[in-house]
Amino acid sequence: MKTFILASLFLSTSAFAQEAPKPDAAADSGADAIVVTATRAPTSIDRVAASVTVLDKAAIDRNQDLTVADLLLRTPGVSLSRNGGYGTNTSLRIRGAETDQTVVVIDGVKLNDPSSAGGGYNFANLLVGDASRIEVLRGPQSILWGSQAIGGVVNIVTPLPTRDLEGSFDVESGSRQTVSARAGIGGRTGPLAWRIGGQSFTTDGISVIAPAFGGREKDGYTNRSVTGRAVLDIAQGISADVRGYYSSGRADLDSTIADTADYTLNREFVGYAGLNIDLFDARLRNRVAYGYTDTDRDNYGPARARQKSFDAAGRNQRLEYQGSFAIARGWDATFGVENERSRFRSVSPSASLAVPIPAPARGKAEITGVYGQVSGEIVQGLTLTGGVRNDDHSRYGSKTLVSGGGVWVLPTGTVLRGNYSEGFKAPTLYQLYSEYGNQALAPEQAHGWEAGAEQRFLGGKVALGGTYFERRTTDQIIFSSCPARPTVAANPLCFQPGTTTARSGFYQNIARAFARGIEAVGRAEIGRVSLESNYSWTVSEDRSTGATFGNWLPRRPRHAANASATYTLPGGASLGAAVRWSGMTYDNAANTTRLDDYTLVDLRAELPLSPEVRLFARTENLFDEHYQTAYRYGTLGRSIYAGLRGRF
């Protein structure tokens, strides 16, 4: 009977025949419909149960933002804090989750730094570069993306060429001697498709420490990055592809109380090689791949006798198989197995040359995940999705997660969505093995659900929608500070394990967090006017027992809103304005340090010089608003930029 069923699936009649979606988060997506690849396979947005925002190349160009973080800040449910100007530590939070609970993916490869405290990704050095689309999935996504995807997923895809030769460039300059230049070129030659893109960015910057706290000198930033993709068709249904990303950044730093000459160097490398095999007339697609990420961070203090003050390196090696199977018309399955090996090294040398450099902290971990997800159209317009995942961690054993959801597109233009998902995040190598480590930590766990609706009018030219969500996190890991002169009797964790050396703090599982909120969105295309808006109400609370119970989690506004309007003139020129309002936040867990609300207004314009070349200009923070996203740290004032954009 099993043999008969399998044969029927593969040899079914044309009434059920279909091709499976490519099992790849960086797969090419058609321009005729909005397709989401952060689901690890190209999927129509009307079949995705989770809340998702898709920014295509036109939206990326229209917003004119230089960094991915600033671009994402305009989307629902996203908040950001930055410790100064460009290049400084940048934390992006989705629906109030920790910044290290968001998975960042470039061309199908996860970006995370095992040597960072939370094991997450620092958005400071991620420029828009050659990105052709950016997708944001909100809510737990651990079924397909594994550990860490508690808050959501940010998927960045670079383009593959569609013509024999094509290219693009963007050059701009503006306030604070800021200059950005990026270019890309690619083509198709027989069975080979390839593209290479690069970007150079430099700015004199602002003082990392805000002027109100004594910041006087400018802290500059430079970044160079390169991306590349190539796909070779070996035979019918068989192809090989390679991908790469490299970024090198240098940012000036200040201490927490004064200007300094310190600076940090950050180097990131991502490599990928894969083989794609289609079977049974592409009803079964297979991908076998190897991914590698390498992050190096070094801090220097020129005024120190020993100038290097910090040295850290994180490595990830990832082997994976992913498949997708077209079960029947409207029914698809995605499944796979992946093995990830991580290691880190970290050391903080003393400023005195008389003190030997200590042995670096080191650690490694391995996790193997097996997952499967089935999506099927039960009746016309109604798609249900269910998935399961098992992660086997070298230290914490096996953990199984489940998810389920549905989306219903009604003939009235109404779209209903709802889903439930779980998350699991093992302690990071830094939290376990660094000088602040605690090897008794337990994994963080989360579960969340959401329900929402969207109503489309006038053939989709006007749409209004809203979503309610909840997420509970247990065993959340936090950093606890130690007193100036700790005693072993009072708290043995205030000493490095196995020694009598006191430390300033340690990591422990005491925090519980609860988040709930509403996201409302609206858009309209009325003649030559395009309107977009969103509002987020996000309550992120500390539910730990003790004095902080019920407090706001730091640097997460409860209210935030974005609105933009663009008017396109008959000749193709356009004028636009964008407004962002962020409510007040607290900078610390005790909720004693308040950061006031703020409103930022941006203006932008474009003028076509030819069918291929456009002149653009923008003013950011038009009214020179003074504000903070992190206490004591500076933010950019009024800024004016102008440049040229070409698409060939």
UniProtKB/TrEMBL annotation:
Residues 47-153 form the TonB-dependent receptor plug domain. GO terms for biological process: cobalamin transport; monoatomic ion transport. Residues 1-17 form the signal peptide. SUPFAM superfamilies: Porins (SSF56935). InterPro entries: Beta-barrel_TonB (IPR000531), Beta-barrel_TonB_sf (IPR036942), Plug_dom (IPR012910), Plug_dom_sf (IPR037066), TonB-dep_rcpt-like (IPR039426), TonB_rcpt_CS (IPR010917). A motif (TonB C-terminal box) lies at residues 631-648. It is a multi-pass membrane protein. It comes from the Bacteria. Residues 232-622 form the TonB-dependent receptor-like beta-barrel domain. Keywords: Cell outer membrane, Ion transport, Membrane, Receptor, Signal, TonB box, Transmembrane, Transmembrane beta strand, Transport. It is found in: Cell outer membrane. GO terms for cellular component: cell outer membrane. Gene3D superfamilies: TonB-dependent receptor, beta-barrel domain, TonB-dependent receptor, plug domain. Belongs to the TonB-dependent receptor family. This is TonB-dependent receptor.
